[in-house]
């Protein structure tokens, strides 16, 4: 069974990183209303992680979903970051990994741990925070962040011997339905696909397959995933918000060259009467290796925009002009292409 089947046909999911107070302190009522809006719009796949606000997103998501039957939605979270009872002081948080992203999240300290014991503990803790009795999909989180430097290969090796084996066993026992990596770099996915002993069901790739950034993924990852019949869930289709009216790219203020590229895409979109959100979502889903896309949101009205963007009719001339202007790779699958 493919990851698409395990997602029960949900091609549009909800990424909950913003619910962890990413970039801003979100009122509790607004967070709950956002999940409620997703449910009302028919969204039935929800992805979260302990890293998002040091458990805040999981707590908020669990509270909202507790009002609905568990069999009616697909739930995924991640392992690799353990939340400790220890609280970081303000100066440590300002300098740490959470600075800027989740500075307004819970103050608990996080540690990287991809071992077998940590994987089991992480799953148990996530279930408690979400008040859930089971998980459908578990992703091994951020195994190759840029700030790890060359150390990411050591983290990968720990995960190969620890998290990969534990998650494979849990899948075989029927405790979870699927597992894979949840990362924002293509290298660990390519490395995992080359392993003979690891058989993940799919991958969550954030930021590396979007309208703004997709060339590297197209070089080797997408063909290799298709060859292995392993599908990909795409996170961050709006590239940290720059494609949805925001000012961030790669979780930081967008640099001038990215802003310029977005303005060029916007100009073409305006000429053809196209929403840039619609272009971003439909571009991602045009790739046959992509099983689903999970944009994030922290305001209820954004959910309706996402569902409308998915259904919007985009003229072929729009995609043709993007390709002619070299704003998308020549080999990128586009909506309407015959594959």
UniProtKB/TrEMBL annotation:
Q: Does the keyword Oxidoreductase apply?
A: yes
Cross-referenced InterPro entries: AKR, NAD(P)_OxRdtase_dom_sf, NADP_OxRdtase_dom
Pfam families with a match to the protein in the record? Aldo_ket_red
Which E.C. number(s) belong to this protein?
1.-.-.-
Q: Does the keyword ATP-binding apply?
A: no
> Which GO MF term does the entry hold, naming one?
oxidoreductase activity
Residue ranges annotated as transmembrane are none
Which domain of life does this protein belong to?
Answer: Bacteria
User: SUPFAM superfamilies under this entry?
Assistant: NAD(P)-linked oxidoreductase
In this chain the NADP-dependent oxidoreductase domain maps to 12-324
Q: Which keywords does this Swiss-Prot/TrEMBL entry list?
A: Oxidoreductase
PANTHER family recorded: GH17980P-RELATED
Full protein name = Aldo/keto reductase
